[in-house]
Design brief:
Elements lengths: L4 E4 L2 H15 L3 E4 L2 H10 L4 E5 H6 L1 H10 L5 E4 L6 H50 L3 H22 L1
Parallel strand pairs: 1-2, 1-3, 3-4
Amino acid sequence: MASPILLIAPESTAFAVADALRRSLDGVVETAPSRRAGLSALRRGEYSLVLLDEGLASADAQATDLLYQNAVSAPVLEINFIITGPQRIVRQARAALTRRAHDQAQARAAVTAALHSELSASLTGLLLESQLALREACPEHEEKLKHVVELAGKMRTQLRM
């Protein structure tokens, strides 16, 4: 797991859940006993998931909104730690982490495809322009332009692989 999980809940309920998360997900779990401590942790580091006790979330809407804003790309799950068992929380956390990993993989694939398309278009333009320049080139520039055409063609072929 790349980034730790942040668990924002009173210590009395956080211990069992944090222990279950550590064992089941084999990752690092940081706990914060209050919204203020959770906000401070979010400002210091990056997390893969934030689990927030519903009791803390409902007590102050503005502070909860601030937590969400500072979580940045980490999903935030509001859970009632008193009535929800640790195993259910582990399942929800695992599902959220899986969704996050899937979303990140899709984003990387989309960026790769866009970059590939841009490079391919630029190389095609370079190849065409260099071929046109070669047709009109004087003999002293012909060898250099042939080399440019050859390089652009090789790069385009490599990009297609």
